Protein backbone atom coordinates (compact mmCIF):
# COMPACT_ATOMS: atom_id res chain seq x y z
CA UNK A 1 0.00 0.00 0.00
CA UNK A 2 1.30 3.44 -0.90
CA UNK A 3 2.14 5.74 1.96
CA UNK A 4 2.92 9.31 1.02
CA UNK A 5 6.43 10.37 2.06
CA UNK A 6 6.92 13.00 4.75
CA UNK A 7 8.12 16.39 3.59
CA UNK A 8 10.71 17.44 6.14
CA UNK A 9 11.59 20.81 4.65
CA UNK A 10 10.96 22.98 1.58
CA UNK A 11 13.17 25.91 0.65
CA UNK A 12 13.36 28.16 -2.37
CA UNK A 13 16.76 27.87 -4.07
CA UNK A 14 16.14 30.14 -7.10
CA UNK A 15 13.45 32.44 -8.46
CA UNK A 16 12.65 33.58 -12.02
CA UNK A 17 9.80 35.58 -13.52
CA UNK A 18 7.79 32.37 -13.97
CA UNK A 19 8.99 29.84 -11.39
CA UNK A 20 10.24 29.22 -7.92
CA UNK A 21 12.77 26.42 -7.88
CA UNK A 22 12.30 24.58 -4.62
CA UNK A 23 14.33 21.95 -2.83
CA UNK A 24 12.31 19.40 -0.86
CA UNK A 25 13.76 17.17 1.86
CA UNK A 26 11.69 13.97 1.75
CA UNK A 27 11.56 10.95 4.05
CA UNK A 28 9.94 7.77 2.72
CA UNK A 29 8.04 5.28 4.89
CA UNK A 30 11.00 2.85 4.73
CA UNK A 31 13.29 5.51 6.24
CA UNK A 32 15.07 6.48 3.01
CA UNK A 33 15.67 10.22 2.61
CA UNK A 34 16.02 12.11 -0.67
CA UNK A 35 16.29 15.67 -1.86
CA UNK A 36 13.88 16.55 -4.67
CA UNK A 37 13.88 19.72 -6.73
CA UNK A 38 10.74 21.06 -8.31
CA UNK A 39 9.52 23.97 -10.38
CA UNK A 40 6.76 25.73 -8.54
CA UNK A 41 4.87 28.33 -10.60
CA UNK A 42 3.54 31.52 -9.04
CA UNK A 43 0.19 31.22 -10.76
CA UNK A 44 -3.21 29.61 -10.19
CA UNK A 45 -2.82 27.08 -12.94
CA UNK A 46 -3.58 27.34 -16.62
CA UNK A 47 -6.32 26.56 -19.09
CA UNK A 48 -5.93 24.81 -22.44
CA UNK A 49 -8.98 25.15 -24.65
CA UNK A 50 -10.24 23.03 -27.55
CA UNK A 51 -12.27 25.59 -29.57
CA UNK A 52 -14.74 23.96 -31.96
CA UNK A 53 -16.28 25.97 -34.81
CA UNK A 54 -18.68 23.04 -35.21
CA UNK A 55 -18.56 19.38 -34.17
CA UNK A 56 -15.96 18.67 -36.87
CA UNK A 57 -13.71 21.76 -37.00
CA UNK A 58 -11.14 22.70 -34.36
CA UNK A 59 -9.29 26.02 -34.28
CA UNK A 60 -5.56 25.87 -33.50
CA UNK A 61 -2.75 28.41 -33.53
CA UNK A 62 0.88 28.63 -34.54
CA UNK A 63 2.74 30.21 -31.64
CA UNK A 64 6.45 30.81 -31.09
CA UNK A 65 7.74 28.57 -28.29
CA UNK A 66 10.97 29.53 -26.55
CA UNK A 67 11.58 26.02 -25.25
CA UNK A 68 11.85 24.55 -28.75
CA UNK A 69 12.82 27.83 -30.48
CA UNK A 70 10.25 27.32 -33.23
CA UNK A 71 6.63 27.92 -34.10
CA UNK A 72 4.50 25.15 -32.63
CA UNK A 73 0.95 24.17 -33.57
CA UNK A 74 -1.00 24.32 -30.32
CA UNK A 75 -4.40 24.86 -28.80
CA UNK A 76 -5.31 28.15 -27.16
CA UNK A 77 -3.93 28.33 -23.62
CA UNK A 78 -3.02 30.71 -20.84
CA UNK A 79 -2.80 31.26 -17.13
CA UNK A 80 -5.73 31.68 -14.78
CA UNK A 81 -5.57 35.16 -13.26
CA UNK A 82 -6.17 35.88 -9.57
CA UNK A 83 -9.89 35.93 -8.69
CA UNK A 84 -10.76 34.37 -12.06
CA UNK A 85 -12.69 31.12 -12.36
CA UNK A 86 -11.81 28.42 -14.86
CA UNK A 87 -14.47 29.21 -17.49
CA UNK A 88 -13.75 32.96 -17.31
CA UNK A 89 -10.07 32.32 -17.97
CA UNK A 90 -10.90 29.95 -20.84
CA UNK A 91 -13.24 32.44 -22.50
CA UNK A 92 -10.81 35.36 -22.00
CA UNK A 93 -7.95 33.40 -23.60
CA UNK A 94 -10.15 32.42 -26.55
CA UNK A 95 -11.14 36.03 -27.16
CA UNK A 96 -7.57 37.32 -26.82
CA UNK A 97 -5.84 34.63 -28.88
CA UNK A 98 -8.24 33.56 -31.64
CA UNK A 99 -10.95 36.23 -31.79
CA UNK A 100 -13.79 34.00 -30.60
CA UNK A 101 -15.66 33.54 -27.34
CA UNK A 102 -17.76 30.50 -26.43
CA UNK A 103 -21.32 30.20 -25.18
CA UNK A 104 -20.63 26.64 -24.01
CA UNK A 105 -17.49 25.78 -22.02
CA UNK A 106 -17.12 22.26 -20.60
CA UNK A 107 -14.36 21.17 -18.23
CA UNK A 108 -12.76 17.92 -19.46
CA UNK A 109 -9.81 17.07 -17.20
CA UNK A 110 -7.02 18.41 -15.01
CA UNK A 111 -3.53 17.53 -16.28
CA UNK A 112 0.05 17.95 -15.13
CA UNK A 113 3.32 18.12 -17.04
CA UNK A 114 6.30 16.16 -15.71
CA UNK A 115 4.81 15.83 -12.19
CA UNK A 116 8.03 14.38 -10.79
CA UNK A 117 9.57 17.86 -10.87
CA UNK A 118 6.85 20.33 -11.91
CA UNK A 119 3.73 21.32 -10.02
CA UNK A 120 1.99 23.10 -12.90
CA UNK A 121 -1.67 22.22 -13.41
CA UNK A 122 -3.52 22.67 -16.69
CA UNK A 123 -7.31 22.48 -16.93
CA UNK A 124 -8.56 21.18 -20.29
CA UNK A 125 -11.77 22.86 -21.51
CA UNK A 126 -13.97 22.14 -24.55
CA UNK A 127 -15.35 25.35 -26.13
CA UNK A 128 -18.45 25.11 -28.33
CA UNK A 129 -21.06 27.47 -29.77
CA UNK A 130 -18.42 30.07 -30.66
CA UNK A 131 -19.10 33.74 -31.41
CA UNK A 132 -16.77 36.43 -32.77
CA UNK A 133 -15.15 38.63 -30.12
CA UNK A 134 -11.82 40.44 -29.79
CA UNK A 135 -9.75 41.75 -26.90
CA UNK A 136 -6.12 42.77 -26.49
CA UNK A 137 -4.07 40.00 -24.95
CA UNK A 138 -0.48 39.63 -23.86
CA UNK A 139 0.83 37.99 -27.04
CA UNK A 140 3.91 39.66 -28.55
CA UNK A 141 2.60 39.14 -32.10
CA UNK A 142 -0.59 38.27 -33.95
CA UNK A 143 -1.18 34.52 -33.79
CA UNK A 144 -1.89 32.53 -36.93
CA UNK A 145 -5.23 30.72 -36.49
CA UNK A 146 -5.77 27.56 -38.56
CA UNK A 147 -8.58 25.02 -38.82
CA UNK A 148 -8.38 21.25 -38.82
CA UNK A 149 -11.02 18.57 -39.24
CA UNK A 150 -11.44 16.24 -36.27
CA UNK A 151 -12.08 13.45 -38.78
CA UNK A 152 -8.40 13.86 -39.73
CA UNK A 153 -7.16 13.71 -36.12
CA UNK A 154 -5.05 10.60 -36.71
CA UNK A 155 -2.99 12.51 -39.31
CA UNK A 156 -3.02 15.79 -37.39
CA UNK A 157 -1.26 14.34 -34.34
CA UNK A 158 1.66 13.35 -36.59
CA UNK A 159 2.02 16.91 -37.95
CA UNK A 160 5.67 17.87 -37.37
CA UNK A 161 4.60 21.20 -35.80
CA UNK A 162 2.23 19.58 -33.27
CA UNK A 163 4.51 18.28 -30.52
CA UNK A 164 2.88 19.49 -27.31
CA UNK A 165 1.52 16.48 -25.42
CA UNK A 166 -1.24 18.45 -23.67
CA UNK A 167 -2.68 19.61 -26.99
CA UNK A 168 -2.57 16.11 -28.46
CA UNK A 169 -4.25 14.55 -25.41
CA UNK A 170 -6.86 17.34 -25.29
CA UNK A 171 -7.78 16.80 -28.95
CA UNK A 172 -8.47 13.11 -28.35
CA UNK A 173 -10.48 13.80 -25.19
CA UNK A 174 -12.51 16.52 -26.93
CA UNK A 175 -13.22 14.24 -29.89
CA UNK A 176 -14.49 11.53 -27.56
CA UNK A 177 -16.61 14.00 -25.59
CA UNK A 178 -18.19 15.41 -28.78
CA UNK A 179 -18.89 11.90 -30.12
CA UNK A 180 -20.66 11.02 -26.85
CA UNK A 181 -22.85 14.14 -26.75
UniProtKB/TrEMBL annotation:
Cofactor dependence is on: Mg(2+)
Q: Which UniProt keywords apply?
A: Hydrolase
Catalytic activity, EC: 3.6.1.-
Where does the source fall among the domains of life?
Bacteria
Q: Which GO terms describe its molecular function?
A: hydrolase activity
Nudix hydrolase domain residues are 39-175
Write down the SUPFAM superfamilies for this protein, in alphabetical order. Answer: Nudix (SSF55811)
Protein name in UniProt: ADP-ribose diphosphatase
This protein's species is: Vesicomyosocius okutanii subsp. Calyptogena okutanii (strain HA)
Amino acid sequence: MRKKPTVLNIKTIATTNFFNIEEMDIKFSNGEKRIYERLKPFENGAVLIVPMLDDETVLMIYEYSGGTDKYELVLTKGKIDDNEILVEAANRELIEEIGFGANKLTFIKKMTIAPSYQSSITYIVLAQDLYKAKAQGDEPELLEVVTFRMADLENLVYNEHLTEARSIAALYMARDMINNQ
